[in-house]
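Minutes, methods subgroup
Present: GH (chair), OT, SY

1. OT presented the first of two proteins processed in the latest run. Sequence and structure tokens recorded below as shown on screen.
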Amino acid sequence: MLLPSKKLFYAVEAVLFIAYNAKAGPIAGRDIAEKQNLSPRYLEPMLQKLVRAGILQGVRGPQGGYVLGRERRRISLNDICLALTDEASIPSKTTPLGDAILKPELATLNQAWQQQLSSISMAQLCERASQQRIPLAYATIHDFAI
């Protein structure tokens, strides 16, 4: 069975964590890693790739961390996959069977996979979490002046 890598799972979970707790302000990478029981050194490169892709935005300073780079409804699982996926894992040199049969089949599967992932947004996942009454990790910060 074809499943996403652990890194991809952790990256999606990190973006979902940020999206679900978005009203709390920037969330430190080390806090996200701690919640996921990961080393910050393991998670940080993934978060930086997501920043470069515009999915997350880094906020500097003592109260810094990560916030979403765009609206939750505009971030799909496919966006995250594309940001973290390096070069294609299909070798360029294959046998005639690989070229004629396997590569086209894998291309079809990949296209279907991307379409399915594109149909799932962070907003939908946050709504599911809310429906299941999953508690927020941080209290909402009220930022206003009188």
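2. SY then presented the second protein from the same run.
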Amino acid sequence: MAADVRPPKEDTLKRQILAGLGAVLSAAVLVLIPAPARADQIRCQVPFSFQVRGKTLPPGTYTFSDESQVMLVRGYTDGAVALTNRLESQTDMDAKAVFEKDGDDYILKETWMGGGTGRELLLPRTNGERRPSIESRVEQVVVPAL
């Protein structure tokens, strides 16, 4: 009878444990390395209902994502999509959402991702349906990013 050349079970078990620990440690290192925040996404706590392209969204925490020429607005339960134009500023570096307030209506006008880059939402064609009344005063409301 030939002698069994296989390593003892203890050696095999040690190798499996060490391989498993190596995989776990590699994954832990990747998790601990901080990933940079996406420059094309911000989160804001919006304390009022607001409109995006005619859709009314309730107050809440929203993520505003710049996806090429489209602004994605996502909340916990609802969202909207709007076409945008690129904005740049040499002086305004804050991340924020900018709303136009007309009476009790808030309309998302711009989002700034920080670093002087932002997006202006294109206004929908209204054929003159939505015009501020003489008595109402349109004002700008800024909500800073979290």
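Chair's summary of item 2: The helical segments are 9-32.
Next meeting: continue with the remaining queue.
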